[in-house]
Amino acid sequence: MYKILIVDDESKIREVIREYAEFEGYCVSEANDGMTAVNLCKENDYDIIIMDIMMPKIDGYHAAREIRKLKEVPIVMLSARGEEYDKLFGFEIGIDDYVVKPFSPKELMARINAVLKRNHKKDSEPIMKSFKFKGLEINMSGRCVYVEGEKVDLTPKEYELLFYLIKNKNVALSREKILSDVWGYDFFGFDRTVDTHIKMLRNNLGKYRYIISTIRGIGYKLEA
């Protein structure tokens, strides 16, 4: 049984999500602010967290950062703000999905199931321990990246994208394929997600940015 933590200062929203989640067999816990969510994560393990952004005490972005310091758990953000900037900022700090209010509870559950399915698949895959190309060294199991001996810090989603490209090196991957495998489903109306993350990843790789090549009309390929 999956354990889900719902974090929102609006009790009605928590109630609706709980109703649908319990109907699908989830074990549900609740928090009405970000600080309570962080404290709960210190004491408990969850399979996924559904978190609002605008909350008292500390907001969802701050809470997500603090939780990421404690453990790797999928986070789906809820927000009444649907601007591209807000979505990109969320993905930069490592959230797994972003849902704009008002939302369909059925769609939210479909997204939650997609994120859990993707993470379950990732956990069951054989682990590639390391990758090295000239002065670029990547410790896959330790989630460490070094460029000419200097450690480079990536966001959780950048790590995931880089490891995915490495596992599929020399294979031309469409944006749709990357979205499906790394994010779990297609982001309708938000097809710049892959391009934005590739750009950030290239910047972090510095002089080795060229190993991620653009395949015109298709997507990307890691060539090494």
UniProtKB/TrEMBL annotation:
**Pfam families xref list:** Response_reg (PF00072), Trans_reg_C (PF00486)
* DNA-binding span(s): 128-224
Species name: Sedimentibacter hydroxybenzoicus DSM 7310
Stored SMART domains = REC, Trans_reg_C
Mind listing the UniProt keywords for this protein, alphabetically?
DNA-binding, Phosphoprotein, Transcription, Transcription regulation, Two-component regulatory system
Q: Which GO terms describe its biological process?
A: regulation of DNA-templated transcription
Q: What GO MF terms are annotated?
A: phosphorelay response regulator activity; transcription cis-regulatory region binding
Q: Record's GO cellular component, any one?
A: protein-DNA complex
Q: Which residue range or ranges hold the OmpR/PhoB-type domain?
A: 128-224
Where in this chain does the entry annotate a coiled-coil region?
none
Record-listed 4-aspartylphosphate modification sites: 52
Q: Where is the Response regulatory domain?
A: 3-116
Gene3D superfamilies xrefs: 3.40.50.2300, 6.10.250.690, Winged helix-like DNA-binding domain superfamily/Winged helix DNA-binding domain (1.10.10.10)
- Its recorded name reads Response regulator transcription factor
Checking PANTHER family in the record gives: DNA-BINDING DUAL MASTER TRANSCRIPTIONAL REGULATOR RPAA, REGULATOR OF RPOS
- Enumerate the InterPro entries for this protein: CheY-like_superfamily, OmpR/PhoB-type_DNA-bd, Sig_transdc_resp-reg_C-effctor, Sig_transdc_resp-reg_receiver, WalR-like, WH-like_DNA-bd_sf
